[in-house]
Design goal:
By secondary structure, the protein is α/β, with parallel strands linked by helices. Helix 4 crosses helix 5 (149-159), helix 10 packs antiparallel against helix 16 and helix 16 (484-499) runs parallel beside helix 19. Helices cover 36% and strands 23% of the residues. It contains 19 helices and 25 strands. The mean pLDDT is 92. The structure holds 6-O-phosphono-alpha-D-glucopyranose.
């Protein structure tokens, strides 16, 4: 979830570009850089850390230092990077150049076929100076360039697979930027005698409110006079610009009222980033980045998952997937319990610590304890360079981008997606699943981003209606079985933490052993009743609840009318493999908590008594 800003016009643009990056800071980043073109040469400066470091590196705001990075240049590119491929270093920060430093590019997203492209380019004599997938694009443009930058970008675009947006400039073209989009956002800002290209509107909103959206598969050539949009085949595309009416507060959140809502809507993209190049073929999961000894993976005795909060719920979903697909026993524990119970753990166990921030004290302590006792420890985290990455033998990044809202949303779905990858990868390493089943599941996993989008597009109105009806409720109950249970736990957690309405999640089969006494006509019961081998069992629990007069809102897989017949209201989610249903079933529950909290006038981004990372011992 990096940030791109480019400028071409009449004004010196160094400060304009860095100010633009500042407006994208809310997206989160770990390094930044800028390239400026003047007098036929590109000058580039990159820095690890925040923009203050970049400002110092280019000589802005320092007394008497000779400024670098061509302050007089009127064309340039700038970038904030959130590391996904390659560590957080100056070399890996963007912009990246080609062999002769004539082409510079900035890129957001992921190039899935980076390994084979890099190999081919190396074979042709290209020399790389970073570990990133992004640098490949500069070399591809160099390879295809023969005087026309737009055509070189178009050819490079044709070689790439993945989801990304990038912008490029060439030393021989002092008044042209060319950018391309495949899945990741890209927008052009049209000023007077100047044009911006960026990954999000806030980057240029202080300079112009006239914006032109670029769609998937399009290439845009930008000059001080405006923008020309073409498709991948070179045909011209007519596109009108529109006026952006956001105020400053909305601009910071990309036009959204809250960060939480913005992050809910970023979930298709977050999951796309998580799975991207880890499913390189129709029949293969590639987690070689874990660098775990294949012999250990084949022979390990069990997996133990430790985590807190939402990460714990993602682990619970992962447990079902790993046991079902890989037939390895999985034990699951809350990190703050595990660390104090003198657990039995040994060198043939794999302990997975799931922590979005990579800094939660209990999870770190549980991971350290397991390591001391000889277990192999793997971290599943969203943050490069976090403590968890240093305390683990193997690391898998979720790549969900920065999450600002305290209530975890996009980081949950990306953790769940990552756990599916782990389950399938272990199954493959241990030959636990037939090849056709692996291929089937890979196809389903690849479809998840579009199914998440479909769900977000379709459930809103029904969820809002439930929220309106129940916003003054005093208690919510969530019921589910099997993979539906962690979805309920997560839904109830969201409701508690942002709406402050007492809520409980229960294994539906346990209801009759006591909690059913809580129910009466005023209790909304949310039932996760997605299609599965135990759906009939869930439905008989729904009957028990309705017999007490409670109102049942069911989350059902499309095409299962018997759930609607058994419920007062049904919210349908798209069909996928039954073990993958949690990733879509959780979305209406996130939205329900969100709308209830908003209707109650609460601050969803910063709920009372809660912080994003709990580091207290
Ligand atoms: C806090 C946050 C939760 C999060 C939990 C674990 O309680 O409010 O949203 O799930 O910490 O955080 P981690 O960074 O370890 O996933």
């Amino acid at each position: 979830m990096c940030g791109i800003v480019g400028y071409v016009g009449k004004r010196p643009c160094r400060d304009l570009l860095i100010n633009g990056l500042q407006k994208l800071e809310y997206r989160g980043y770990d390094s930044a850089g800028i390239s400026l073109l003047a007098d036929g040469e590109i000058d580039s400066v990159r820095a690890v850390g925040n923009l203050a470091n970049l400002r110092v590196a280019v000589g802005m705001g320092t007394n008497g230092d000779a400024p670098v990075a061509a302050p007089s240049a009127t064309i340039g590119l700038a970038h904030t990077r959130w590391a996904t491929h390659g560590r957080v270093t100056e070399e890996n920060a963007h912009p990246h150049g080609d062999c002769s430093d004539e082409v510079h590019i900035v890129l957001n997203g992921i190039i899935e076929n980076h390994a084979e492209l890099r190999q081919d380019l190396r074979g042709d004599g290209h020399v790389f100076s970073s570990e990133t997938d992004a640098e490949i694009v500069a070399h591809l443009i160099e390879k295809h360039y023969s005087g026309d930058l737009t055509e070189a970008v178009r050819s490079a675009f044709g070689d790439l697979r993945g989801h990304y947006a990038f912008a490029a400039m060439h030393a021989a073209h002092p008044d042209t930027l060319v950018a391309a989009r495949q899945e990741c956002p890209l927008v052009v800002g049209m000023g007077d005698d100047e044009t911006f290209v960026a990954s999000a509107i806030p980057a240029f909103l202080a300079e112009t409110r006239n914006a032109l959206a670029i769609e998937n598969g399009e290439i845009v050539t930008v000059t001080p006079d405006g923008a020309t949009v073409t498709d991948a085949a070179g045909a011209s595309v007519a596109r009108k610009s529109e006026e952006i009416l956001w105020d400053e507060d909305a601009a910071e959140k990309g036009g959204y009222a809250t960060f939480m809502r913005k992050e809910i809507d970023e979930q298709p993209d977050a999951v796309a980033e998580t799975i991207a190049d880890r499913l390189p073929d129709k029949d293969r999961v590639d987690l070689s980045e874990l660098e775990l000894d294949p012999e250990f993976v084949r022979s390990m005795r069990r997996i133990v998952i430790v985590a807190c909060g939402t990460s714990y719920h993602a682990g619970l979903v992962g447990r079902y997937a790993i046991e079902q697909w890989a037939r390895v026993p999985v034990e699951m524990d809350i990190a703050s319990e595990y660390r104090y119970r003198d657990p039995v753990v040994s060198s043939d166990d794999l302990v997975i610590g799931i922590t979005q921030s990579g800094e939660t004290a209990d999870t770190l302590a549980a991971m350290r304890l397991a390591r001391e006792k000889g277990a192999k420890v793997m971290a599943l985290t969203n943050v490069m360079g976090s403590q968890a990455t240093r305390d683990a033998d193997a690391v898998l990044f979720t790549r969900a981008g920065l999450e600002i809202g305290v209530a975890a949303t996009k980081t949950f779905v990306s953790q769940v997606a990552a756990m599916y990858l782990v389950g399938l990868w272990v199954a493959q390493q241990r030959d636990a699943l037939p090849a056709e089943r692996v291929a089937e599941l890979i196809a389903e996993l690849r479809n998840l981003p579009s199914k998440i989008q479909e769900t977000l597009d379709s459930v809103e109105e029904r969820v809002k209606a439930v929220a309106r009806a129940e916003k003054d409720g005093t208690f919510f109950l969530y019921l589910g079985r099997n993979v539906g249970l962690p979805v309920c736990l997560e839904g109830a957690l969201k409701m508690k933490e942002i709406s402050y309405i007492p809520s409980d999640a229960y294994a539906a089969g346990e209801m009759k052993h006591g909690p059913i006494a809580l129910l009466d006509e005023s209790t909304p019961v949310v039932c996760v009743a997605t299609d599965s081998p135990i759906l009939d069992k869930v439905l008989s629990n729904v009957e028990e609840v309705r017999a007490r007069g409670a109102d049942v809102v069911s989350i059902a897989t499309e095409g299962t009318p018997r759930v609607a017949e058994a419920s007062d209201l049904t919210i349908e989610v798209p069909r996928t493999d039954w073990l993958l249903q949690p990733i879509v079933a959780v979305l209406p529950l996130q939205l329900l908590a969100y709308h209830v909290a908003r209707m109650r006038g609460l601050n969803v981004d910063q709920p009372r008594n809660l912080a994003k990372t709990v580091t207290v011992e």
